[in-house]
Amino acid sequence: MRHHHRRLATVHGGHLFTIRLFATKHRYHVPFQSPNFQLVNTRPFATKYSGRVVRETSDRRSVAVRVETANILPTDIRGYPLPRRDLICKVIKILQSSSDPFPDLSEYLQTLNVTITPAEASEILKCLNHPHLCLEFFRFCSSDIPNFHHNSYTYNRLLLILSKPSRLRDSERLDLILAILDDMERSGVRGSISTINILIAIFGGGADVEKCFDLVKKWDLQMNSYTYKCLLQAYLRSNNPNKAFEVYVELRRRGHKLDIFAYNMLLDALAKDNKVDQVYKVFEDMKRKYCEPDEYTYTIMIRMTGKIGKVDESLALFQEMTEKGCTPNLVAYNTMIQALAKSRMVEKTIFLFSKMVKNNCRPSEFTYSMILNVLVAEGQLGRLDEVVELSNKYMSKSIYAYLVRTLSKLGHASEAHRLFCNMWGFHDEGDRDAYKSMLGSLCDAGKTTEALDLLSKIHEKRISTDTVMYNTVLSALGKLKKISDLHDLYEKMKQDGPSPDIFSYNILISSFGRAGRVAEAVQIFEELENSNCKPDIISFNSLINCLGKNGDIDEAHMRFKEIREMGLSPDVVTYSTLIECFGKTDKIEMACRLLDEMLAEGCSPNIVTYNILLDCLERSGRTAEAVDLYAKLKQQGLTPDSFTYAVLERLQSGSHRKVRVRRKNPITGWVVSPLR
């Protein structure tokens, strides 16, 4: 009896089986006819099937069919097993189902009698992408799955996951990575060049990168172009362009190439580190045969040459970039305009700007700022209208607002106002910051009429006025002593809003005091006391200054005593102001007692305070006390100023000059010290 063996696949009862046929023949050779089975491609299932089917034919021949487990895994064209997606999805679902999923996972794998392959483990790690869970699963595979052994792919996957930003501290992450490398060595797993690339990215350009070189030798690997690129970028990210350039020289010597991204990174780092010769060498290498420069490459070169003052070379590079078909972007145009503006080439700057607009490249605020700077530097701010006209299609509300703000900050109120008027007619809705800047610029320039007009019409552009806007105009009116306008604006503020705040009241008290309108200043102070705002130390300082400078020293002293009743503490400005008031009315004893009180209260006098009292003592002929006071200020470590020396000079010459120049205090807006 002879047995003929065939393996085939059959669809039987809805399941796929691998079968073996046993055909028994008699003495004579009879061709064997197999049953009608459907031949299909084998496909593995997790479920295990086994059994035996026997059939007898009409000519008394018997056929036995043995059903066996299909253990063959599908493979790719290289013969490597393909990951089972259904198994991977199920394992991931179990791992993400609870805080301790590994007992359930172990039970699932034992029930089905399946073993996870390293490729499948790598895919599962990739999908988890959670450092702690990945570590636990990685250890589970090697300890709980029979006959499972990690290879370089699973180690690489875990290292790659740990290399990404996570909640792990840098020191903790580094310790884990070193532990994984030790585990690789104990397990006898030889890493690949991909392992080295990942480690270089992790270690960066620090001292730990030397471990990568040791592993290359230990594992007998050859560094490829991508490895050199990783190493170069690691040194660049650690701000070590010198080592990066050494890597570049070595990779060129070994015949490797960089891509355009790596070349641009290297050029940018070298240019920022002022390695001009090395930049030229790398750039020439690119152009000669290795890599075609793009617009970013040319932008780096233009920035460097412009920085070192070679603007003609910058222009040549820009021209070369366009001739080679590279389309300049916003950064390229801005870089070239910056180089021209730095060299104060107004005509070429405006010409390039016109080309930029013509090529449909939208200028940015930085573009306009560079053009503004060169126009101001060359005294050609009038050409700003030409720039605005050239870029009319791109003149948005934000650009107008930026120009207005910038001109205001530069002190060019007239140009800012003229441009602001263009914006007013160009847009139905205004920019709040631009309007505030314009208002401040007009007030700084003393153009209060225009400022009042703008404040009254600002609602037409759907902008609501606020207290800051009113305070800006109130302050400007007070400085110019336009009391009538000041009073009218204050009344409008009370009637239509917004409500005055503490700054509004302080500005009004100081302004009325500056104009000698004591009654109005006192009235404003009383309104402040009755409002939702309460007086602060600046309010009292302004009122005391107003009363004292206008001769009502007793009322000023009474207000001084009220400060503590309000729960406030006098500051150096308060004491200095009142000391000057007493000195001005020849009440020297009161001024000296006030200084002693100031020291007793722990309020340190400044040089202005001492200058006030020195001047009072010198004018009253109390030379010895003035000399003692000067010694005291020196003991306190204060530095005498020009006014101090002027008083000392008068003391030595014996002349008592009574002419005084008033100096404005930046806080109260009123006089707190005698002038020279």
Distance between the termini: 134 Å
What's the main sheet like?
Answer: 5 strands, antiparallel
- Low-confidence parts lasting 5 or more residues at pLDDT below 50? 1-49, 657-676
Write down the overall geometry: elongated
What is the count of DSSP helices, taking H or I runs of 4+ residues? 33
Mean pLDDT comes to: 83
Q: Which secondary-structure class do the elements indicate?
A: mainly alpha
Keywords:
single chain; disordered C terminus; mainly alpha; about 675 residues; 33 helices; two-stranded antiparallel sheet; 7 strands; five-stranded antiparallel sheet
Summarize the structure.
The protein is mostly helical and 676 residues long.
Could you please describe the fold and organization of this structure?
The chain has 676 residues and is mainly α. The chain has helices spanning 85-95, 102-112, 118-128, 131-144, 152-163, 170-187, 193-203, 209-218, 225-237, 241-253, 260-272, 276-290, 295-307, 311-323, 330-342, 346-358, 365-377, 384-390, 397-409, 413-426, 432-444, 448-457, 467-479, 483-496, 502-514, 518-530, 537-549, 553-565, 572-584, 588-600, 607-619, 623-635, 642-653; strands at residues 3-4, 7-12, 15-24, 51-56, 62-68, 663-664, 671-673. Strands 1, 2, 3, 4 and 5 form a five-stranded antiparallel β-sheet that branches. A hairpin with a 2-residue loop joins strand 2 (7-12) and strand 3. It is elongated and about 140 Å long. The relative contact order is 0.03.
